[in-house]
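Entry 0007
Protein: Acetyltransferase
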Amino acid sequence: MQPHDLPAVMALATTMHPGCPERADVLDERRRLCPAGCLILPDAQGRPGGYVLSHPWRADRPPALDTYLHHLPGQANCWYLHDIAIIPPLRGQGAMHAALRILTRHARDHGVNRMALMAAEGARPVWAHMGFTPMHGIPPDITATYGVDACPMHRAISGTIQV
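Output (structure tokens):
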């Protein structure tokens, strides 16, 4: 993801996540802090058909929605999937699996052995299908920023990259 991709990312985020609005500069901060974890998923014409915002973090204290990180933690223990959005025509074509394989490699490069995320806006079944399970002990004030159905989830990263 490059700086010029931000308008497309914001357009996709606004359309696909209406209940979880975030400011453009908050999303761009994640891109600047962890360029390798922020991806554009192209459609058939090469235009942004989805995106991924992710970074190393601490699983026990996920960032609240629409908040600045300021810096990445020195002792990360997970790869945090802040947001993955894919337009309907790209769904079911392996884009999410491909993105998760890339992120798994980044997680391993950072020495972490699990991924974490906040499932919101009805996405819990999708993430459960991908092997994520609910994570307990997350402060409710953080979870609440993602909406009433938000569920912190995580999954171990196995020894092989299979998604």
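Curator remark: The radius of gyration is 15 Å. The mean pLDDT is 90.
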